[in-house]
Recover the amino acids of this structure.
């Protein structure tokens, strides 16, 4: 196992800086593209969801419509890697929870990071995106109920773009699975919170390296980033009803 080339993932911002209203980043799409072709995240001013697949960068807007991003658009929180899976298998799942349960045994250790791509046919998928927010910025848990828009699709082919982060990095990124979706026509997408998948092909990349890029701004410098965020993460990653 020694001397193998370690695969790594690049991140800008932290989940806690996003929760603490640091909504303007300094990493442009042009910069992110130098670090990989596969990933997900947020966009400046919480203006939609970021989905990166096969080297294309999309915004899923508040109506779930995908638009390709310009190179100068920035992200306050994103992860990206050069997708190079070492492991592939077929899957089906009656729910998001079942998908997580079926994927977990394929992760070789709970101490590593993973990039996960699933191309499949979805009987049903529930997605979320957001309207943008304006200054003065308020904390994400306070504004998300008003900003978020949910939408669902039936019998749609597409790709789940996902990552899995270990719980010991919970102040840095969302622990566990995090998936964004884009359909095969590259027309619609968003953050995934529910699904039923008829069948899919899973590809997993194990990541032993993590490069964290912090944001050069007074808002980032002054944010309280050392906080117990469990409740807030659960609140913003799932949809509040
Ligand atoms: Zn998301």
């Amino acid at each position: 196992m020694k001397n193998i080339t370690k695969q790594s993932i690049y991140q800008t911002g932290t989940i806690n800086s996003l929760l603490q209203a640091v909504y303007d980043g300094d990493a442009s799409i042009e910069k992110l593209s130098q670090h990989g072709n596969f990933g997900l995240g947020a966009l400046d001013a919480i203006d939609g969801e970021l989905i990166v697949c096969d080297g294309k960068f999309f915004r899923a807007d508040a109506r779930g419509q995908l638009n390709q991003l310009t190179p100068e658009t920035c992200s306050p929180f994103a992860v990206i890697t050069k997708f190079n899976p070492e492991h592939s298998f077929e899957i089906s799942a009656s729910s998001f929870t079942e998908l997580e349960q079926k994927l977990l045994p394929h992760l070789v250790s709970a101490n590593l990071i993973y990039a996960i791509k699933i191309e499949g046919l979805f009987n049903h998928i529930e997605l979320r995106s957001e309207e943008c927010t304006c200054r003065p910025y308020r904390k994400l848990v306070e504004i998300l109920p008003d900003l978020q828009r949910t939408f669902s699709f039936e019998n749609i082919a597409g790709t789940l773009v996902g990552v899995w982060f270990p719980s010991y990095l919970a102040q840095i990124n969302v622990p566990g699975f995090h998936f964004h979706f884009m359909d095969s026509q590259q027309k619609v997408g968003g953050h995934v919170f529910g699904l039923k998948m008829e069948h899919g092909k899973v590809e997993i990349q194990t990541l032993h390296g993590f490069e964290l890029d912090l944001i050069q701004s007074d808002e980032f410098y002054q944010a309280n980033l050392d906080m117990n965020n469990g409740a807030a993460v659960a609140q913003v990653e799932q949809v509040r009803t």
The first strand starts at residue 8 and ends at 12. The pocket of zinc ion is lined by residues 49, 178, 180, 191 (CB under 6 Å).
